[in-house]
Fold each of these.
Amino acid sequence: MSGGESETSMRDAINDALREELQRDESVYVVGEDVAEAGGSFGITRGLHEEFGEERVFDTPISEQAIVGSSAGAALTGSRPVAEIMYADFMALAAEQVMNQAGLFRYMFGGDATVPMTVRTVNGGSGFNAAAQHSKSLHGLFMGMPGVRVVLGSTVHDTKGLLKSAIRSDDPVLFFEHMELYNRTAEVPDGSYTLPLGEAAVEREGEDVTVVATQLMLHHSLDVAASLAEDGISVEVVSPRTMKPLDVETLVESARRTGRVVVADESTVQAGPGSYVARRIEEEAFYHLEAPVSVVGVDDTPVPFSPPLADAVVPGPDDIEDAIRSLPRL
Amino acid sequence: MPDGPPRDGDRVIEQLREMILVREFETRVSELFENNELPGFVHLYIGQEAVGVGACSAIRDEDYITSTHRGHGHAIAKGLDIDRMMAELFGKASGYCGGKSGSMHIADIDRGMLGANGIVGAGPPLAAGAGQSIRRRGEDRVCLSFFGEGAMAEGQVHEAMNLAGVRDLPVVFVCENNGYGEMTPAEEQHNVEGFLARGDVYGMPSEDVDGMDVRDVYDATSRAVERARDGEGPSLLVCETYRYRGHYEGDPTTYRTDEEVERWQERDPIETLTADLVEAGELVEADVESMRADARERVDEAVAFARESDMPDPETAFDGVYAEEL
């Protein structure tokens, strides 16, 4: 390994992760709609079909239940499938195969079965005006399903390492990418690397406020933190990376230190992951907090089409900044 | 598996023995349930034994099956141990799943039994996935996917059949038409006569099978399995059969007549086969009585094993959710 770094897009980082795992383990295969010659709806799987052939990278009919259900069956029988579901919204169609099948097998069958299945899907989309059926962030739904891991792709660096670990995991993993992050670029290490599931990362250190942020909200939060630093407000930004299991310890440690917390996540606030993160922090850092944890997310409203409407519903940097500035005694 | 197929007569006698074991197991489960010895609820396979036994006797140990909520017969026919099955029904630690599954989720992945399943229609996509594993490894294994005709109204069954057809997966879809989807007659749930056309629309051969005759099921399954092993893709078998008991134990079955049940019982898979074998001089009535006695004794042992086993330690309720601790 050269030990160097290269500027890489999110799209290429995910493609590299898939290629490396396909090379490493012949039980890995990539399956989904338009993932073969078409290279995936977002171009993530480009070139993989040509390189690995029809047995390792192949298209299916438009059948989300069969994609995820067959992946669960393949995982039970010695394969390590990586399924692509084009939009998180479409996971509604395949929720059965996760919540009643893949997630339960190991437990229900007495603890011997393994289900090494990864489902990659795509949160977000309001920035592309994808409208209400192609814009939701739905990782929160799966956090309530025992037996499945829930992992988020937020930074280019982390997404590659986490996806490789997800594929190697013997448990079913729901891996949520974000539509508006595919073109983002960053320096990532050359060659193969993995990152542990279940560990949060402090993306920026600060003293006055902790912002726990996911996916696009993480990038907004880092921008806001940079600009607030000019006003003398020191913001720590933490990326949970894995939502289940959640690295509560790292979040709480930061919250105790800063005493003020904002959670920014593009899901609905009502019964959403942001509210769950807030509860866990309040439970364990209560006496260190200056105020209740503030949750920035989507109201109980579908994501609309027209740009001004979409901007009104989905939080942006201003909403995160407002939430921070509303905290007491800053 | 022994080398080469057994003489037909030997095989049929083994099939009879297996059907009798399933019948005795299920009859005892019914009694145990009636006596409140089993938690939860159970769905019995009595009347349909020829399908599970006929189909599973046409595959090898290393082949796979997916099953249903009415899965005891499939499990026994796939060679699962009835001690551990019965213990699971009792909710005991020694059960197949340590008391976590009960009747509806018994599985033994090492034996290729990919699980009974409480979700109607859930098996076929799993079977397609097993077929995918087989195809990727270039093996000549197959997966049988049992499901009731009620599941023919479930979307995921159609997705799975289409996917298996498109990818030539080595899956045999075994539809058991027992006349009722839960508590409603099949003809009120499907606007077609029979289910053979469901194979045509997914480009796979389909065959109408007498599900009350283990020989017919065995022959049809053998043809479909051979196609699958040869890489010619999936098939659909529609086995016409009948569920003697209700949808679940305790179902008052007000939706059908005693006459209808009796009409089907005249075609009982065990009685008719016995009569044929006796007439052919393959065995005498006393042989069948002795098979029945052996089966009862075997089931007695299973019940004793289950009763004597310990209930699971409540602490184990939290074990086995994940393969890896994070």
Amino acid sequence: MTVPKARNTPRGRAETLRVERVRHRFAGADGDTLRQVDLQVAPGQIAFILGPSGAGKSSLLRIVSGLLQPSGGGRIWLGEQNLTTMAAHARRVGHLFQEPALFPHLDAGGNVAFALRYQGVARRDRRPRAAAYLAEVGLAGKERRRIDELSGGERQRVALARTLAARPRALLLDEPLSALDADLRRDLGERLRGIIRASNIPTVWVTHDAAEAAAWGESVHMLRDGVLTSA
Amino acid sequence: MGGRLGRTVRGERLRLKLGQMGRYVAPFWLVLPLAFLVVFFAYPLAGVLSEATMAAWAWMRTPYVVGRLQGAVGQALLSTALGMALAMPLAWVYHRYQLRFGRWQLALHAAPFIMPVFVVVFGLQRLFAGLGISLSPLWTVVVAHAYYNYGFAARILRTGLDRRPRRQEAAARALGATPAAAFWRVSLPHLWPTFGAVALLVFLFSFTSFGVVLFMGQGQISTLETMLYQNLGGAFPRYDRAAALGTAQLVLNLVLFASYLRLSERTGGLEQDPVARRQRAPRLVVAAQGAASLVAAAPMLLVLAGGFRLNGHWSLEPWRALVDVGHPVHVAGFVLSRALMLSLGYAAATVVAAIALALTLAYASRRLPNWARRGLDTTTSLPLGTSSLLIGLGFLLAFGAGDWLDLRGKTIAIIAAHTLIAFPFAARALLPAIRLHDARLDEAAALLGAPPWHVLWRVHLPLLAAPLTVAAGLSAAMSLGDFGASLVLMRPDNMGLTVWIGRIDAPFDSLRKAQALALTGLLTVLAIIVIAAGERAQLGAPAREASAREAPPRRPMEAMP
């Protein structure tokens, strides 16, 4: 199994992710969490976003994936498609959280197969395909493992395989490695980078680790006081 | 923007608007459970209140009534003391030690709590007779109440003990405290509210007991319930006195129940430390626990066997007399299949209605602020502190001839009463599970392409399977075992098994007694199936993903009542 390239897009080719003038304020908050945020990420590019806790990094990702509606307007474009008003389940934007949020009633393979279902994969093909995705992230032969039998790093890999199985048109990574130890971070980080390059999809990666961002990112941004600036 | 794409975007905008509106519309669904409570709980109870005349209140102050009530308080205090004395060591054993089939043994101890009252009454009567024990009516009632309640009390206490602050205890020990001192000075202050809440609940159930006192008190022991029932029956029913008794009972119950809720709120503040691995039990503990389980099971086994025993011999005669309409001792009007089907039908309808109401309550209140949810929880728990007989009396007074809703003898009245009794149990099984549901799972499913109804079907439903089964089991058990409201509301043409058991039972007629035991055995089997289904569902429940932010998961059965 190879990592899927950016296909199945409305135009059948790789797309650029654009965030335009996104503004957001949480109910009851004193000021705007995000003020006029603009961002452009080319296919295969990784845009790192740094910033202090509470700066709105996760909120920005949630707005892009459709989990949060920007209260003050703005536009999200993927290629030529305006995602702003689309429901999260229709956007096909992959979003990997710090905590993997795996379905506890399904095993590792079942979690990945869950995503395949919505890709129109026939029931009989889902398990083998899920096993292949798991092998891709270094979990070959672990598809029958229950979630509570997996280590933290393995869970994060299952979450990654599950996100990739949904064949995302863009990828959002919200500190996906921060809960892992140094060796695992390096290993999974390398894998992630390889997968993103191979799949040629735009990726936004939120991290606290400036060194990691500087080492890997073609574009590094700083989100502070609701404003995104190039670092 | 092209025509088709433009339409899509407009459609998406509309969907989004509807979705945002849905967030505000969801709480309006609360109208359903609240309307149910207003119509079938508040309104009938207001009817009870209005029936109580000044003369009836004056009667309440007579030495006869006051003496009986003092006796009821004394009986409830003794029952609580004995029940807690049995529950505490049991809870400690299951907290401390790993026992083979420990989970099932604890379920066995807790089983009487949801068994029909006749299982406890007949089972203990046969156990005492078999062992040659002769107790005074007071002690018979006290032992029966303790047997009824000790297991469920032990279960809640065990959950409380499992949540004791081990890290703080370890810190105390590092400062030089002995294990006993660390437990005494660190954990016990945290555990007192749990002990208090459980004791209060046992007192409440002993004080409002009806069936046990009616059948085992030999007329010498009273509760507000039995006095209320006496005033409803006979050639000259005194509804005014029954209403005064009911009102007094209601106020007392609400005060006790509010205290229970306040105490149980204080039990929830602890951060969950990891539950320590239980120790392997010493042989003495295993043997003692085995013996205790045997004693706990004995009354139920005696009831099951009792239906096949007549005058000291094994016999199928009781069943023949039940089934054969032409049998000389067959009770006129009784048709086994019909009574069984009616009981199962009431139970099925109760399960559907109670779960539908509980689900509506849980989902509609998900986004409400904490204070509103607490208020709702208290309101919807109120029927739990109200006796089944009082609910029956309320229905009788509120939905009689000439009232806006005439439900006399109607099946719907029985189902509504059973639902009212089962609803708080179903709600308490489902609410924590739905409120603790990790919203990130819904988000993850949506991000993988699952539309909202798929999220409900493929994520919520599998995760709710265990609490749903428990809620269904408890609702069915409440309906199958209900005696008070059923006794008042059921007519000969729609009587279920429990009321028939009361009719068929004749203490000095061995065949009639054996028939009553046979029917009670049948109810016992049904209750065991229900309990086993609940336990199995919880065993198979998926483990939650560990997360520091997540409140500790509580098994629904242990959150009971």
